[in-house]
Amino acid sequence: MTPNPPPHLTLEQRQAALLKAKISRQERAQVKQAIADGELSVFDALNDPRESIQRMRVVELLSSLPGVGKTRASLIMERRSISPTRRIGGLGQLQLRALGKELAVAKAEPRRGNLVVISGPGGVGKSTITALLRNDPRFWISVSATTREPRAGERDGVDYSFLSTQKFQEMIDSGSFLEWAEFAGNRYGTPRAPVDEWRSLGKHVILEIEIDGARQVREREPGATLIFIAPPSWDELVRRLAGRGTDSPERRAARLALAEQEMAAAGEFDAILVNDQVEGLIDQLVSLATA
Ligand code: ADP
Ligand code: 5GP
Q: The whole model's pTM is what?
């Protein structure tokens, strides 16, 4: 296929195009400067109907916000699943609203976010609880790395980063984990860098990890809030583990034996919340996590 020949432009047309490009650059620079100086809100800029602004990349606009910068702007976009090359004019209503939420939090909570650990016996409802906090813009739920096989429906990079034993070992060796532990024959770890990054963005970071990991966090980050989720009763825990139906009977028996040991560690935590009704528990959790 031969490329299209360049359009034949008269001198005047070329000059007009150059002038238009120059004006566009100036308009974009003015808008970015006004945002950096706090004279213009991002929302006004997003609604600026001028072609030069509508064609600007969203990430470029966000980066000009004081204290955000390119890396954080990209993280905000990634969190809301907006393509890094998206231009302002190409943002949908839902994406605009999502960005609004993110920025409102960044503005309201410029201080470093808390580190919150949620632990408790397997089957008590930890994943159910963290899933309910996933869309709350005040929080970021850490994505752990693990050597265990994905369960049906689990997505790599969302539920866990599923790693080979070798890759996991490399991360240990390079000091990339805030904590890691072995649990039921597999390894699990919290990558340190995203935790720091999101906390510096003002998000309260939630780690859903087992007890050994929680102990390591307490040692390395003494300011962290450690919350233990307990079942209403032992029988109910057994029912929930069975009800989930994701493990073989042998594995379930092993998990119950582990759960017994885990229950014994509840006293080491800052707070114990009983997962009877999830809604009430979420309210308590949110107030502890944002305190
Ligand atoms: P964990 O992540 O702690 O291993 P899950 O979140 O997978 O536990 O929950 C185990 C099972 O218990 C799931 O089937 C879940 O739907 C159920 N469950 C969670 N919380 C409650 C609750 N408050 N009441 C009843 N069932 C619950
Ligand atoms: P599951 O295999 O059921 O997803 O998780 C098993 C256990 O590993 C759970 O208690 C869960 O909280 C814990 N876990 C998940 N991610 C991490 C992690 O990054 N570090 C540690 N220490 N435990 C984790």
A: 0.70
